[in-house]
Amino acid sequence: MMSSFRLKVVTLNFWNIPLPIPGVCKDRQRRLAALTEHLMQEKYDIVALQEVWCEDGHDVIQQKCGSWYKYTKYFARGIIGAGLLVLSRYPIYDTLFAPYGPAGLPGMVHQGDFYGSKGVGLCRVNADSHLVDVYITHLQAGYYSGKEFAAVGAYTGVRMAQIVQLMQFMRNTRSHASSQILMGDLNTMPFEPMMTLLRDGVALQDAWLVVNGSEEDGATCNTSDNIYSCGKEFPQRLDWILYGGSRIECKKCDVTLRRVPNDSICYSDHNGVSAEFEIRDSSSSPDVNSRDKSSCTGAPIPSSVLTTANDAVTEYLNTVHLRLATGYRRLIMTLVLLATLVVAAPSSILTSALCAVTAVAAAFQTFVYVVTKSEVRELRDVLSVVRLQALRHKTPQETAI
Fold first, then answer.
1. How far apart are CA 158 and CA 139, in angstroms?
2. How many other CB atoms sit within 10 Å of the CB of residue 148?
3. CB of 128 within 8 A of CB of 275?
């Protein structure tokens, strides 16, 4: 007898940044109240939230929604936490978090991605006796309008490196007996090669495209109906639900959490994405996703995609090398200035203040230098993975050459 059950999920970049700066994270408390009300009304099975940077947001959500979502995992690590929160009505019996090595530039304090502890979290959920591996992540933002830094090329390299590490993590943690669902703000558009790398590298399907057949109406950021992000850039589909496994099939996928009903605000500067899956028992039917029959390692990755990945990460590595050299020179100059102030300048309140400021600057420059050196090592590791993938997918004739 055929046996299956339905699983209803949703993902949202909630934009919950606790900064007392005008224009940053508007209407946070009102949006938080509206979100908790929506989650209790819709009664999802699994919820994936990003940018829940402050624990008071997590506490409020857990307090108001805990009667339905009895199981939660808040990935709190690093300076301000990873901002990733998973809510589930089913038991979460195992969790794991892997930080991304390439994590942006520590010197770009105003952009903040480096300090956000970007990474991927895994929650292994026992959903009605079906094993579901739920992955949640939030990749490097684009900052496409930045003038002080060539953001488009370099940050594409960061995201490409992060996706390589995400691909590795999923391939090494997924179980043959499970279904996999990846949710989050990937800050990546459908036409970018890194999405091909992720989908083919881990044998994932795009829930939106499977159900709706085209990209039309799939945008989740900078849409005309969003009061916070409308007009900043062209509409983009940055928020994703991807899935894999031989017994999981997507039946419904919608863009949701747009405007708050009977209010003038939106839930976030992003829209959410919801999906409904049917998961079959192992003995109930043949594979519904033929692309997953090969193995958990995914389909062959096109050589052009691997070449693009190699070029993007290499370009970013070159940028980091340049910033490393610049940072070293700045550090030396700052230390020389500090020594000059200490030795040559007459003692005064002003001199003491200048020494203190210079010492803080020297400490920060040292921190940036050390972290950037670590970033170089991480990027070299990513490049080695990409090149091994390229070698793995070569034909015997190409390998012989």
1. 9
2. 8
3. no
